[in-house]
Amino acid sequence: MKKTLLTKMIIWILVLSLNLLFSTFIFAQSRETNENIVIRPQNIAITVHSNDIILGTFGKLTCKGHTEVSYGYLAGITMELQEFKNKEWTTIKTWSETDADYVALNTSYFVVKGTYRLKLTHKAYDSNMKQIESFIKYSKTIFYE
Hints:
- There is one protein chain.
- It is built from one helix and eight strands, in the order αββββββββ.
- The mean pLDDT is about 85.
- The chain starts with a helix and ends with a strand.
- The protein has one helix at about 1-20, and strands at about 45-55, 60-70, 75-85, 90-100, 100-110, 115-125, 130-140, 140-145.
- The strands form two sheets. Strands 3, 4, 6, 7 and 8 form a five-stranded antiparallel beta sheet that branches. A three-stranded antiparallel beta sheet has the order 1-2-5, with no helix packed on it.
- It is mainly β.
């Protein structure tokens, strides 16, 4: 009986010692406040967004994008496939979708050799379909040779 109690106490002391040994302590340091700093939220309604473009065989581009918004808003997305030609980006195909709180586009398009990217406009609407937020994000650039 005494042996098991002693064994339990030794194990307990070892566990506590290891816990203290591997613990990380964090200390906060005060700093002077700067009244000129303004913090602005990046987005109010749009919570998640993404885009991707993948080059498959025979010039098949898989174009993906999605927008998620907070509860009470409608999500919208416009996805433009752009080609770099004559030193400028030109839109060659456009897809759009609007839905409740999540909207996604996933489509394929065959292209000839060239340089391509996606231009995605992520949007949020209120219940009256008034656009309250919008921003543009570009995908990576694809070189099809």
